[in-house]
Amino acid sequence: MDNSQNLSTLGEFGLISRIAAGVSTADGVVTGIGDDAAVTAFTPGMQLLTSTDMLLEDVHFRRAWHDPYRLGRKSLAVSISDIAAMGAIPRWALLSLAIPGDLPLDFIDDFTKGFLSMAAEHGVTLIGGDTCSSRAGLVLSVTIMGEQLPDLILRRSGAQSGDEIWVTGTLGDAALGLKLLDFGSAQPPGLALAPSCSLGGAEWHEHLISRLLDPAPRVIAGLALAESGLASSMIDISDGILADFGHIAEQSGVGGCIRLQDLPLSAEFLRSTEMSDEFPYQLPLSGGEDYELCFTASPLNREKIIECMKKCGVEATPVGIVTSLPGVAVIHADGSPHALQNKGFNHFK
Ligand SMILES: [Mg+2]
Fold first, then answer.
1. 214-225: per-residue pLDDT in tens?
2. In angstroms, what is the span from residue 153 Cα to ligand 1's centroid?
3. Which residues pair with 256 in a beta bridge?
4. N or C: less crowded end of the chain, CB within 10 Å?
């Protein structure tokens, strides 16, 4: 590729061709990038699922922290995660970019490579989008489309009193990664972290930061839960389990009780926070951007779920119980209530 050009000499159509050059043809795409609209053929009998997300510079990401390749991956990953949360198959994506004039072309190239690598990992094809210039930072907008049989789609509204609350993977890693980036080498206030320079600490910190910058959407696990019929409701954890299970509770007309000691924490999270006087529970409860799945299921399905998730290479943990009483409570091992500090990330606060 010719790298001597910049955005203004390349122009909008040059940029679109540059992005489109990396897109391969795929099943289900009748007409891709280049016409007035894309034409896709979805699988007969399936329903179409659509979701859209915006990522704004200095609101959702900082260019100083986020290398363009991982930013490209993440911008698609967070959208794929919403399709995974419905137990559906991600298929097509639209990408719109508002680009500051001084953004180097290399940045766009690396961003596109990252975006397309995430797309390839999940069988997603980029079928169109829009580009324009921005006077206030880089703006990314991704629309994702997926499909699934109507009876298999998992919604937030199916939880029943007595169901267990489950989560995949580990919680709080991305939020701790954000704290590490936010405070650089200094200690975040109220959180004494193990030093990064000794006992392999640098690797733990890198793991936590990479959970923030390069999240892996749980597509296979979401599909397996949908196809097995084992789960009654599902959501992806983007704003912390407290807020996101709260959405399930609200939409299902139920409540829930989450057991603090059962929240799954990574070895890296535990090692990094072991010096902390007061354990930072707010991170696994209300820290954002885990992109794990939270789902509910009858306690009768417990063994089958563990087996099913194991086949997907994912650890799943029961962390609480759905109650008929509205509201979400968090309890310590002795049954005493945990005082909640906040309920997850809220853009308008
Ligand atoms: Mg979501």
1. 999 999 999 999
2. 14
3. 322, 328
4. C
